[in-house]
Structures are given as structure tokens and as C-alpha cells.
Design a protein that fits this description.
Layout: H1 4-21, H2 23-41, H3 46-59, H4 62-79, E1 84-85, E2 89-90, H5 97-110, H6 119-130, H7 135-144, H8 151-165, H9 174-188, H10 206-209, H11 230-241, H12 247-261, H13 266-308, H14 311-319, H15 324-342
Antiparallel strand pairs: 1-2
């Protein structure tokens, strides 16, 4: 244990050293803290992000905030399993339509399209939509050029904006909702943090998983459809040329006609052969496994019999005390033999 005087002296020495280093020490420590935190965050410690992340980000300055914040945000979103990309905005196609409607409603309120808004917020809303172009944007410009521009006029302008650019959520289908998120993120600069409140769907289309996130382009990415095959074209043509009431019967007749033409793609025969080969391989594996288990049991029995024939095993068997069941069985056999002699 150190004495009180020695502790005080060491404390004073520490203050003097820290004061003498000054700004140079601050810069070195800041760089070390930045590199250390980046390295630690790269390990993916989700439990430490909630507790230590905010404290570290708030203590090491603007440099770390700018460098590590984006890294940590991207990692958290990746750990949550959501579809992110672009400017860190969740892909709207990865969220269900019901949750997407809720997010759109919340985003409109946060960006003052609906709900309470001050004069400055209404002015900002009008200036954002005035740059979109078109007759509705020109009408918004006329409102902004009025003098004096009162709050009732701005509210009237917001009503025009809502009717022209922001249709009711109930009228928007899934594709409309996705397009809405994309153009508002690009043209109006909406952050769409409201999407972070909803988890991604378990099953997402391949086009959604590989699409770009909002913020990069105004138009939502459209996945190119696969060109129809010869089979598709033949079935469609046969259905058109043979009209009728029952679509199922017509389709069955079209399939039979396709099979009779002999124009089936070469891959169909190859696929059938592949399936047969897989079934044969699986059957061979089952048979070999059954044979292996049987041979293993047979070998184990042979080893047990061989061990029983060794001199040591015979000596142990000779000195073994019979079990109770064996003694009772032997006594019963003796009784039976005695009764036979009496007779």
C-alpha cells in the first residue's frame, strides 16, 4: 500500500507531465483512439455497440464521429439483416406493404407534408417542391413569390402540394410506394429513417436483394424479365389458336401438342437424366451405408468371440461367480433331474 504522501506526489507528477505534453499528446491520443475504435467496431460486437459506442463517439471528437459513425451504422444494419445500400437507406422493397405505408405516413409527418408546421417549415416544404418542375411546381413558385406571404397562404400551398405530389397512402400499391420512396429520397432529400423501424421480409426477391437503395437515382430499379422460351411461345400460340371454355383442358392439350412436336429443349432430357443419376447415387449411398453397418456389426461380433477364446478370458470366466438367475436356473435343472430319478 502506498502512503498518502507518495500518492499525492505521483499525482502531481502526472499533472505536470500531461501539461507539458500539451496539444501534441492530444493529437496522438486522438489518432490512437480513432484507429482503436475502428478496429474494435470492425469485429462486430453488437452488445458493445449500444453501451460503449455512444460514449466513445462522443468523447474522441469530430474526426472519429465522421469516420466511425458511418462504419458503425453500416455494420449495425448488416447485423440486423435488413436490406441496406446506397446512402444507408433501407430498400423499400425489402419491407412489407403494410409497414411501408406506416413508414410513408410517418415520413410525411416528419417532413411537414402533414401535421403541424411552422412558417419556416412550410417555406422549406414549398422550396423543395418548387424545384421539381412541371405545372404544379410552377404553381408552388407563384405562391412563394407572393408578398406579403402569410401563413394561411402557405397552408393553402401545402394543400396544393399534397394533392399534386403526395397521393393518399391507401391508394398506393406496393410498386407505387417503392417509387415514392425513391423520388422523395432523391429530389426532396428525405432521409427515410422511418424505414429503420421495420424488419425486412424473410423472403425477398432476387431483384430486391441486388437493387440499389434510395438516394442514388430518382427511379426505382426495375429487374429485367427473362425472355419467353420456345415452350412459352408455343403454349401461348396454341392457346390463342384453339379457343374454348375450359382453360385447363386447353392448356393440357397445348402441353400434349408440345410433347408430340419433339421440339422439347435439349436441357429437359439432360435434366431428367440428371435426376435419375442423383436418385441412383442416393440409392447406392443407402445400400453402401447399410452394408457398412452390417459388416461393422459382424466384425464386432467376431472380435468378441475371439476375445472370449483367449486363455485370460477363459480363466476369468472360470473364476466368475454365477449370477443369481444362473444359480436359480441351475437349481431348477437339478430338481428336475432328481424328480426323474425318483420315478
Amino acid at each position: 500500500m502506498l502512503g498518502a504522501g507518495l500518492k499525492d506526489e505521483l499525482r502531481e507528477i502526472g499533472r505536470d507531465v500531461a501539461a507539458s505534453i500539451g496539444s501534441e499528446l492530444k493529437g496522438v491520443a486522438k489518432d490512437k483512439a480513432t484507429s482503436f475504435v475502428k478496429e474494435q467496431f470492425g469485429l462486430g460486437f453488437k452488445e458493445e455497440l449500444q453501451s460503449a459506442g455512444r460514449e466513445i463517439l462522443g468523447s474522441v471528437g469530430d474526426q472519429l464521429k465522421g469516420a466511425a459513425k458511418d462504419h458503425v451504422t453500416a455494420m449495425i444494419k448488416e447485423q440486423l439483416g435488413m436490406g441496406y445500400g446506397g446512402n444507408g437507406i433501407a430498400r423499400p422493397c425489402s419491407i412489407s406493404a403494410a409497414n411501408l405505408r406506416k413508414a410513408v405516413t410517418a415520413a410525411r409527418k416528419a417532413n411537414h407534408v402533414t401535421g403541424k408546421a411552422t412558417r419556416e417549415q412550410l417555406m422549406e416544404l414549398g422550396e423543395g417542391h418548387a424545384d421539381l418542375g412541371g405545372k404544379h411546381a410552377a404553381a408552388v413558385v407563384k405562391y412563394l413569390e407572393r408578398s406579403p406571404l402569410t401563413v394561411p397562404m402557405l397552408r393553402e400551398m401545402r394543400g396544393l402540394i399534397k394533392g399534386a405530389f403526395h397521393r393518399p397512402v391507401g391508394e398506393l400499391a406496393m410498386d407505387d410506394l417503392v417509387d415514392y420512396v425513391f423520388w422523395t429520397a432523391k429530389d426532396l432529400g428525405w432521409s427515410w429513417s422511418q424505414l429503420d423501424a421495420y424488419s425486412a421480409k424473410r423472403r425477398q426477391s432476387r431483384g430486391c436483394r441486388g437493387s440499389a437503395a434510395p438516394g442514388r437515382s430518382r427511379e426505382a430499379p426495375v429487374r429485367k424479365k427473362r425472355a419467353p422460351s420456345k415452350y412459352n411461345l408455343f403454349i401461348a400460340r396454341h392457346m390463342r389458336e384453339n379457343p374454348g371454355d375450359d382453360a385447363r383442358e386447353r392448356f393440357t392439350d397445348a402441353v400434349d401438342a408440345w410433347k408430340r412436336t419433339g421440339k422439347r429443349r435439349a436441357g429437359a432430357t439432360k435434366a431428367a437424366a440428371t435426376r435419375r443419376m442423383k436418385r441412383d447415387v442416393q440409392e447406392q449411398r443407402r445400400q453402401s451405408e447399410t452394408l457398412r453397418v452390417a459388416e461393422s456389426k459382424k466384425a464386432a461380433s467376431a472380435r468378441a468371440r475371439a476375445r472370449a477364446q483367449t486363455p485370460r478370458a477363459k480363466a476369468i470366466a472360470a473364476t466368475r461367480i454365477p449370477r443369481k438367475s444362473e444359480r436359480l436356473q441351475g437349481r431348477g435343472a437339478a430338481d428336475d433331474s432328481g424328480s426323474d430319478d425318483d420315478m
